[in-house]
Write a structure and sequence with these properties.
This protein is mainly alpha-helical and 411 residues long. Helices cover 63% and strands 0% of the residues. The protein contains 15 helices and no strands. Helix 4 packs parallel to helix 10 and helix 6 runs antiparallel to helix 7. The radius of gyration is 21 Å and the shape is globular.
């Protein structure tokens, strides 16, 4: 399993050159050049499904996210563990920064595409979902799955780039969980989702009031979290030279506000160019395709195939733009982890593998019923000023708190 980054305030790994650093750095550079070459090829290709500028952008955006997730430790499991176990809220400010930047960016896009938000229409493509008991249940199950498996779906993807062995059974479990979610979708939809409202904050008082309200809530949460925000460790002044730049880029955790702000900007660019960020569409689509070909699912999943917006895919037979985004996350994380010696393998016990699968199943089921995960609903949904994003976020956070309090992460 990949090495877990040192806790905030602890000593950074020594940045001096050791044997193998040159090869690792060269490999990271080669991966970066390969991503650029593939993105250029995709942009120049017009083949259905595999090429086009949308696929090229998705690969580059995913790579950027992989770098940010790895170097900024933008991981909901790590951030929540720091907050609820270590009483350290510093990482949580990255999430708040991503939400704040994304909120402003989304509103600018909305104001161009849908000038009047009070007309009863919702902005096309935005992750604005029905709010009801099913969404709360999905968030709780997903949050407990994060604690049990050791990460959310996006977290396991970027940890693959760090060499995480446990991420493999967790992601395989998520594929199974997607299948369970699809198999149980119709009865859950009929009982708990059908007819539920999809409230959108700007529909009530316009973009201005909604934006100010959401930013005020985020600011209020930040003020509360300051209670557990430790002072930054003092460092001796160093002149900015090659070794210092290398240490800041590859060995020291990137500043939380910078990381969160950049994640928010990537999310805004993704929605402007193609679709909101999410990491479950391609993966869930593969699961559904396999089950569909074996006649193991209903022909139609009510609501899901008709009108609901989210990050859960239909039957697919090719690599979608979401697939390129997911692949970019893994490659970007690997390229960022190599120069800082973060790619390591550790032995995984049978118990760790079993809990990874179990937690992964919970992640997959929660993602289907909730129409996305911590990226597609928590981030993209909340940035879109959707009440569903807030409901899912609160449900996930409460489950994370309960899971860590119960010690479920120790397995």
């Amino acid at each position: 399993m990949a090495t877990v980054p040192a806790a905030p305030g602890s000593a950074d790994p020594p940045p001096g050159w050791i044997r193998g650093d040159g090869a690792r750095t060269a490999l990271a550079a080669a991966l970066g050049l390969t991503v650029l070459a593939v993105a250029y090829h995709l942009g120049a290709t017009r083949g259905e499904g595999l090429g086009g500028s949308a696929a090229s952008f998705a690969l580059l955006a995913g790579t950027a996210l992989g770098v940010l997730f790895q170097r900024g430790r933008f991981c909901f499991y790590c951030i929540s563990r720091d907050l609820f176990v270590e009483k350290n809220s510093r990482g949580a400010f990255a999430v708040l920064a991503a939400l704040a930047v994304g909120t402003v960016g989304y509103v600018l896009i909305f104001s161009l595409r849908l000038p009047d938000p009070s007309g009863g229409r919702l902005p096309a493509g935005a992750h604005i979902a029905p709010v009801g008991p099913a969404l709360v249940l999905a968030g709780i199950v997903f949050g407990l799955g994060v604690v049990i498996s050791g990460g959310c779906i996006a977290g396991h993807l970027y940890r693959l780039g760090e060499g995480s062995v446990r991420a493999v059974p967790a992601l395989l479990g998520a594929l199974v969980g997607f299948g369970v979610g699809f198999a149980t979708w119709n009865p859950i939809y009929g009982a708990l989702i059908e007819g539920a409202p999809s409230p959108w904050l700007p529909a009530g008082g316009g973009y201005g009031i909604a934006t100010v309200f959401q930013l005020a809530v985020l600011a209020g949460i930040a003020v509360v979290l300051l209670r557990w925000n430790p002072a930054e460790p003092q460092r001796d002044s160093r002149r900015i030279d090659g070794p210092e730049i290398r240490r800041q880029l590859f060995f020291t955790r990137w500043p939380t506000l910078l990381t969160g702000g950049l994640v928010g900007l990537v999310g805004v660019a993704a929605y402007l160019r193609d679709q909101p960020l999410g990491v479950t569409s391609q993966l869930s689509g593969l699961t559904r395709t396999v089950l569909h070909e074996r006649d193991l699912l209903p022909v139609t999943l009510r609501g899901l195939d008709e009108r609901l917006a989210g990050c859960v895919a239909l039957v697919v037979d090719t690599v979608t733009t979401n697939g390129w985004l997911v692949g970019g996350i893994v490659v970007g994380s690997l390229a960022a982890a190599l120069p800082g010696r973060r790619v390591r393998w550790e032995r995984m016990s049978a118990r760790q593998g079993l809990t990874a699968v179990l937690g992964g199943i919970m992640l997959g089921w929660g993602a289907v019923i909730g129409l996305g995960c911590t990226v597609g609903v928590f981030l993209s949904g909340t940035q879109a000023l959707a009440v569903s994003g807030w409901v899912f976020a609160v449900s996930v956070v409460l489950a994370l708190w309960a899971g860590f309090r119960l010690g479920l992460h120790r397995s």
